[in-house]
Structures are given as structure tokens and as C-alpha cells.
Write a structure and sequence with these properties.
Layout: H1 5-19, H2 27-34, H3 38-50, E1 54-57, E2 63-66, H4 75-82, H5 93-96, H6 105-121, H7 126-130, H8 136-139
Antiparallel strand pairs: 1-2
Helix pairs in contact: 1-3, 1-4, 2-3
């Protein structure tokens, strides 16, 4: 399984917001630091705003800021906000006319794996990333 580029950009953008708190950042500032398109990152941050992870302010003094403390934002929250709300695996039972869907072992294992993935990601907060000491903090300064 591979998460989209959007998830990575969201996590790094939120990291930037956490580092510069309480200052708001423009998408263009975050995009410049990450060397990505401003319009692409803006779409990612619109998703985060809709899910209540960031607040956005329009106008001359506008920008984005965290809607909650870094301790309250998990990697699972971010991935769920950014990725499509479809299961990681969905069999073709409807297309193939398979009647085993309710009791399908393969489908069940994929559902369990998805639950475990999000359970694991829910144990890592934005604050954990800030305090991980991997030297990235300076790399995302804006």
C-alpha cells in the first residue's frame, strides 16, 4: 500500500504550522519550503480545514494555523482527512457476482489490516513528530 503524496505534504505542512505556532502561515510559504505547487498544497489544506485540523483566515493577515494542539492531532487524523474515504481493499464481488462477500476471508484480512494501520497511526501525534529529534525541525522553517 502506498499513501498519496497529499498525505505526506499535509503532514509536513502541519509540522511547519506546529513549529511556527502561534503564527499563521500562508500556503505559499509552506509550499515554498516544501518545493511543491502552491495550488496543489492549497487543495490539501482545504481538506484539512474541512475536517477541523486547521483553521483558515482570509485576507491580508490570513493564513492557516492548527485548529487543535499538536498533541491532539494524530497521523491517522491527517491520513483520514486527506485520503479518499474508501477502504484500502474492496473486492470485485459486485462485478463478478461473488456471493462469498459477507464471509470472505481475504476481504476480512484486508479490513483487519486497515484497522491495525489506523490504530498504529493513531498512536503518533504531531507533537511526537516535533519531539522526535530527527533534525527535520530546521529543514521546514519558513
Amino acid at each position: 500500500m502506498k499513501l498519496s503524496k497529499s498525505s505526506e505534504l499535509a503532514i509536513h505542512g502541519l509540522y511547519q504550522l506546529a513549529v511556527t505556532r502561534p503564527r499563521q502561515l500562508l500556503v505559499s510559504e509552506m509550499a515554498g519550503a516544501q518545493k511543491v505547487s502552491t495550488s496543489y498544497l492549497a487543495k490539501v489544506f482545504q481538506k484539512l480545514a474541512r475536517k477541523g485540523i486547521v483553521n483558515s483566515t482570509r485576507g491580508k493577515r490570513g493564513g492557516f494555523c492548527l485548529a487543535r494542539s499538536p498533541e491532539e492531532i494524530t497521523v491517522a487524523d491527517v491520513v483520514r482527512a486527506v485520503e479518499a474515504e474508501e477502504p484500502l481493499y474492496d473486492c470485485l464481488s459486485a462485478v463478478r457476482g461473488c456471493e462469498a462477500r459477507p464471509s470472505c476471508l481475504l476481504r476480512q484480512r484486508f479490513l483487519e489490516a486497515e484497522e491495525e494501520l489506523f490504530s498504529n497511526l493513531s498512536h503518533t501525534s504531531l507533537a511526537d513528530l516535533l519531539h522526535s529529534g530527527n533534525g527535520e525541525r530546521d529543514a521546514w522553517q519558513v
